[in-house]
Amino acid sequence: MKKQNCWEVKKCGREPGGIKADEFGVCPAAEEEKADGIHDGENGGRCCWVVAGTLCKGANAQGSYVEKFSGDCQKCDFYSMVKREEEPNFKIGLSIIKEMRQRK
């Protein structure tokens, strides 16, 4: 079974071609190519908590990983779902960021 990305679970419509992409823009998580394949996701779709400027709260972009994670992301049902699905191989935020930086 294919693992779901954040936009598929949250049904935000902010993925490329999504129903709200023209009106509100595409979410950075859906475009973050350096995160492609992490937790078997498409772009940043299964590690959105490390992608700066995601649009989880509507039109206002959220901040950096540190700003987001200590607040909303840690409590997010999608984050909890990915963590549960990926155990024992769940990658913590800093290891994901390091992996993304090493990719070209």
Secondary-structure topology with pairs:
Layout: H1 6-10, H2 21-24, H3 28-31, H4 65-69, H5 77-86, H6 93-102
InterPro entries: Two-CW_dom
Short structural description:
InterPro entries: Two-CW_dom (IPR054687). The chain has helices spanning 6-10, 21-24, 28-31, 65-69, 77-86, 93-102. By secondary structure, it is mainly alpha-helical.
What share of residues is helical? Answer: 25-40%
* Largest sheet composition: none
Low-confidence stretches: none
Structural class: mainly alpha
Cα-atom radius of gyration? 13 Å
Kindly state the number of beta strands. 0
User: What overall form do the CA principal axes indicate?
Assistant: globular
**Overall pLDDT score:** 92
Structure description:
InterPro entries: Two-CW_dom. The protein has 104 residues and is an all-alpha fold. The protein has one domain (6-99). It is built from six helices and no strands. The radius of gyration is 13 Å and the shape is globular. The model has no long low-confidence stretch (mean pLDDT 92).
Keywords for this entry:
104 residues, mainly alpha, 6 helices, 0% strand, globular
